[in-house]
Amino acid sequence: FLDEETVALMLERGTDLVPTMSGLYRVAEYYREAGDPYYCELIYDIALRPQQKSFKLAVESGIRYGVGTDSAGEMVEEMVLMQQAADIKAAVNPAETASGRDPKSWRMAS
Q1: How confident is the model at residue 90 (pLDDT cuts 50, 70, 90)?
Q2: What is the chain written as a DSSP string?
Q3: Is 82 within 8 Å of 67 (Cβ atoms)?
């Protein structure tokens, strides 16, 4: 999860954030619906709540963010979870987040 040092490095390097929260949310809610609140709350405690806190820190620090998912979640769920975590009103233009820079400058964060 993100801490202040990581956020500072992200700002320094111009790194954007796409948090992908909905997949874990769906798994947690699956356990709730299956009548197993223990595993639902465990996922919230060890993953979802810390991820929400990280996202809020990033947004409040000025990190550019976008919405997307490569997991079991859906885009609308992703946007709702982002809004709940950081009280945002809208995500950054996804085209700008994905391709607003010269593609030759793209790199994985290290």
Answers
A1: low
A2: ---HHHHHHHHHHT--B----HHHHHHHHHHHHTT-HHHHHHHIIIIIHHHHHHHHHHHHHT--B----SSS--HHHHHHHHHHHH--S----HHHHHHSS-GGG-----
A3: yes
Write the burial class of residue 13 (CB in 10 Å: 0-12 exposed, 13-18 middle, 19+ buried): exposed
Q: How confident is the model at residue 96 (pLDDT cuts 50, 70, 90)?
A: low
Q: Is the pTM of this model over 0.90?
A: no
